[in-house]
Amino acid sequence: MTATLEHPVTTAANDAAPTAALKFITCGSVDDGKSTLIGRLLVDSKAVLSDQLAGVQRQGQDGRETDLALLTDGLSAEREQGITIDVAYRYFSTTRRKFIIGDTPGHEQYTRNMVTAASSADAAVLLVDATKLAWQDESFPLLAQTRRHALLVQLLRVPAIVFAVNKLDAVTDPKLAYTRIEAALRGFAQEADIAVEAIVPVSALKGWNVVDAAPDANWCGYHGPSLLRILEGLSNTPSETGLPLAFPVQWVEKFSSSSDTTQGRRVFWGRVATGEATVGQRVRVLPSGQSAVVARVLSHVREEQDVAAGHSAGIVLDREVDVSRGDWLLAEAEDGTALQGVREISATVAWMDDEPLVPGRAYWALHGHRWVKAKVRRIVHQLDIHTLAEQDATQLEANAIGEVELVLQDAIATRPYAQSRTLGALVLVDQASHKTAAAVLVR
To answer: I need a labelling partner for 131 at 20 to 30 A (CA). Which of 118, 300, 326, 360 fits?
Structure first.
């Protein structure tokens, strides 16, 4: 994957933006201005009512001032401490697009919340605080959390990454600062093989280049579109319809008590993970290995129609088969083969528990809606987020990224995460504390 850092060109094609809502997150280091940026997007796009705006105003030196961050920091602890802890979702729309924003925390101890939000995002806006960087030197390091979040967004296959260099209104030489920070981001992205949609200078506090252009058309030497204009032109995550059907059963409904045996008398509900559910398909049940034919496919409103990946469906089989919550229905090929379950996997993990990961320890693993026990056989290596080098490790500390080998008690049907964000993802949960311990991405 090649890093692309040029600004997107605004064309007639870009003007015809897709109508589907774009789900994006803001991420980056602590106090980089993520909540303020979202507040600015909401205010300048006229998505905030006057009474809401009045509720986040406070008395300042120049009269009433609006604290934009309070529009997303909803928890009392967030308001008291002035930090983001949990993921706050907000909704707004322009004449061209609808948006769902996830404001994720920048503190290292809340990285797990950022990972959760990024796993289903179409795009990520990664903020970089210009006032925290020694941009006066030609060679300076990026913040560790900036690098960590960028690597996690890449690992989670978020389709579009936009770097927003914030607080350039507060530096002595905005143009030089932006030029050097952009160069540092370009070098890091190329080294880490991260594809970047755009890099844009902004002032979330003043609103420059967020929704509207900066007052000075030559501010920071940037002549590209505003952040909102860039977001309006991004594509949604494509559904994984090119793969064979894989359907995780979430709920089993008995819909008939008649003696009709021409088809099964239960509906298996869930969200199609890959492929498309169609009548006449032959499927195999994992883990039982039984086969059946799809007799009916229902949409989420119980209309009989084919259902593609990413949408909820109800499936009725042509005969009674032992299927429970957590089982998978997998398409059978003409030769009778289907995606095989595996008990040993190699995976990249983003470790999120305060207790370190150590070989030999067992965890609960959640794949789809199925729970299985998993043991860490060995740690292959850990990624150094500063040098991007792979180094030996005997354990993974909180917020570390590494590669491990897992042994599962029961087989699960997986594909590499690079092929499927659904089939290739697991979550590890501590058996004693029940805390989410890791995001697991199958290699």
So the answer is: 118
State yes or no: pLDDT of 75 exceeds 80.
no
Burial label, 6 (beta-carbon count in 10 A; 0-12, 13-18, 19+) = exposed
Beta strands in 88-181 (DSSP E): 88-93, 98-103, 123-129, 160-166
pLDDT over 50 at 2, yes or no = no
Q: Are 404 and 392 in contact (CB under 8 A)?
A: no
Per-residue b or e along 215-231, where b marks 16 or more CB atoms closer than 10 Å to that residue's CB: eeeebbebebbbbbbbb
- The verdict on whether omega for the bond into residue 359 sits within 30 degrees of 0, i.e. cis, is no
- The whole-angstrom separation of Cα 332 and Cα 152 is 34
d(CA 441, CA 443): 6
Q: What is the pLDDT of residues 157-211, one digit of tens each?
A: 999 999 999 999 999 999 999 999 999 999 999 999 999 999 999 999 999 999 9
Q: Which of 277, 289, 334, 332 is nearest to 267 (CA)?
A: 277
Residue recorded with tokens 């992205």: 189
| 7, pLDDT greater than 80 | no
218: helix, coil or strand? coil
Give 428's strand partners. Answer: 365, 438
Q: How many CA atoms lie within 13 A of 272 on its CB side?
A: 27
**Cα angle for residues 176, 207, 143 (degrees, 5° grid):** 50
